[in-house]
Structure formats: C-alpha cells, structure tokens
Amino acid sequence: MIVLAIYLLSASLLVSAQESVYTPTAATFGINGFANWGAGNWPPSNVGIPIVPQSTDPKTLSLLGEFDPARIQSTIQTLVNFGTRHTASNTTSETRGIGAARNWLLNEMMSLAKPANGSIKVSMPCYEQAPNAAHGIPFPVQLCNIQAEITGTVDPNRTYVYTGHYDSRRINISDYTNDAPGADDNASAVAIALEIVRILANIVGTTPPAASIIVAAVAGEEQNLYGSNFLAQTRKYFIRP
Q1: pTM higher than 0.85, yes or no?
Q2: Exposed/middle/buried for 139, CB within 10 Å: 0-12, 13-18, 19+?
Q3: Which of 78, 93, 171, 238 holds its CA 20 to 30 A away from the CA of 31?
Q4: Residues 82 and 96 sit within 8 Å (Cβ to Cβ)
Q5: What is the pLDDT along the chain (241 residues), one digit of tens a residue?
Q6: Environment class of residue 125 by beta-carbon count within 10 Å: exposed (0-12), middle (13-18) or buried (19+)?
C-alpha cells in the first residue's frame, strides 16, 4: 500500500510538472558578482502540487513539553566552563579542554540513560586523527564521539540520527589553548541531545521504537566534520547481528 501511494504521488507530480512549466525571471547581479535572487519571482507558485504535511502523533507532540529550558541552560554553561573544547585542546585536565568535556558528557549521558534499563546503549567510540595543520590539528589527536543508541524492534537497520558537535573554536582555527566557549556553536545542540536521551529513557524501556535511534555529541566538526564522518562511516559499514 505504501509503495503504491508513493508511486501514485510520483506520477501525479510528474504530470503536474509537465502541465505547468516554470520560466524564471532573469536574475540581476550585484557589484560583488553574485546573483540577486531576491529580485526574481521566487519561490515559484505554479510548479507541482502542494505537499500536505504529515500529521504528528499527539503522544510525540506531548514529548516536546518535557524539554526543560533550565537543564538546557545548565548544560550549555557547563560546557562553556571547560574554557575551550578545541579538538586539539587539553585531554588530561579534569576541568579544562575537550578531554574533560567529553568525559563529563559520557558520564552525564550514561546517567540520563539509566531509566531505560539497558534499552539505551551509551558509548564513546574513538579513533586517532592524523595531523592537519590547515584545519587546526597540528599533531595526532584522539577524536571521540559520545553517543546513545536505541535499537529498533521492527526495522533496526533503519536509523534516525540526531547530532550536535561539542568541540569549539576561536576565529584562529589553530588556537587550541585560549578560551573558545562555543555556547551557541554548538553547546546548545549538545544540550538538546542530552534532553532527548533523558526524555526517551523514560519511554523506550516499555515502548521501544520501530526503527533505531542514535543521539550523538560529535567532535572535530570545526576542523573538517571529522566526528560526523566517523559516525557516518561506522554506520555505513555496520552490519547488525
């Protein structure tokens, strides 16, 4: 039924596109050489058919009300307090640098996952990233993601992923010693990741999802999306038993 619905929708979009051909207005160009797309008739109103938003399950919507602004702010401030979370920053201090930040995130995520009674697996996969001076990594570093995984019960190989990067940077990408608080880039997204784990931990033990879910705080984003690539490649070649 789903396949048939997708087929019919695709066919209707094709017919609609064939019946209504969009002719864009010629773009004008500014003194910087870039196109002034705002001067054209965009977005087009005569292409295809309107997409009807999928209705959201009321129970899912109710979960949005469980996000705690105070907890989000507290997480952001905690991450800021580590001074810098540059990918090449200190990894031995307990109070400063990316090492202290990732250890705190791992412990916090494990604590938040406890109500799930084992349904949420928390881990910190790492690898050694080779030096790349152009991207602000002057020497080999241990690059680690902190992630929580919930295995789906119906289609476990279909995975939904949420990430926020916990590393930070200064304008000078090579400065890995001075403060780089990174509150909105990207401690705020990491704070949301922890809230997702906290909220799901009270649900998935009794109502597991059909598909798998990964919630991760990744590193190396400011250098070259290293942590996200590590996660993506790991999933690409992952074969579930």
Answers
A1: no
A2: exposed
A3: 171
A4: yes
A5: 333 333 333 334 333 444 444 455 555 666 666 666 555 566 666 777 778 888 888 888 899 999 999 999 999 999 999 999 999 999 999 999 999 999 999 999 999 999 999 999 999 999 999 999 999 999 999 999 999 999 999 999 899 999 999 999 999 999 999 999 999 999 999 999 999 999 999 999 999 999 999 999 999 999 999 999 999 999 888 766 5
A6: middle
